[in-house]
């Protein structure tokens, strides 16, 4: 899913560059516009699914803090299942993307975490 999202974002970035070039924007303005769009598209918030109901929230938070500053951390019951999920917001999109890339499908308390940008 992350690869498809990356491809879509790259295509969006190319379209913006073409549009800005057609409007005679300076290269610096174009570069900054592309960076701003990509950061907004990637997002700072991730969702972690498949957490066992009795998982240790402090352990998960400590693991995620290795990737950057967390500005929000919430845990919810996944209705109809024995699992929980967490929504975590980082201070920037790169930290969120790094956490997804490294931790998606990683084992946590005996279960593989399913992590995606939210």
TrEMBL record:
Judging by the UniProt lineage, the source's domain of life is: Eukaryota
Q: Where is the signal peptide?
A: 1-22
What InterPro entries does this protein's entry cite? Nucleotide-bd_a/b_plait_sf, RBD_domain_sf, RRM_dom
Q: Name one GO molecular function term.
A: RNA binding
Q: Which UniProt keywords apply?
A: RNA-binding, Signal
Q: Where is the RRM domain?
A: 44-118
**What Pfam families does the record tag this protein with?**
RRM_1 (PF00076)
For this entry, the protein name equals RRM domain-containing protein
Query: What's the source species for this entry?
Result: Owenia fusiformis
């Amino acid at each position: 899913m992350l690869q498809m999202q990356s491809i879509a974002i790259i295509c969006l970035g190319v379209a913006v560059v073409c549009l800005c070039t057609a409007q005679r924007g300076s290269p610096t303005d174009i570069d900054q516009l592309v960076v701003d769009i990509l950061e907004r598209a990637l997002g700072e918030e991730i969702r972690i699914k498949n957490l066992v109901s009795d998982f240790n929230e402090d352990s998960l938070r400590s693991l995620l803090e290795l990737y950057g500053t967390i500005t929000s951390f919430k845990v919810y019951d996944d209705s109809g299942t024995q699992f929980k999920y967490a929504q975590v917001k980082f201070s920037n999109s790169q930290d969120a993307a790094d956490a997804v890339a490294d931790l998606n499908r990683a084992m946590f308390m005996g279960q593989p975490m399913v992590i995606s940008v939210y």
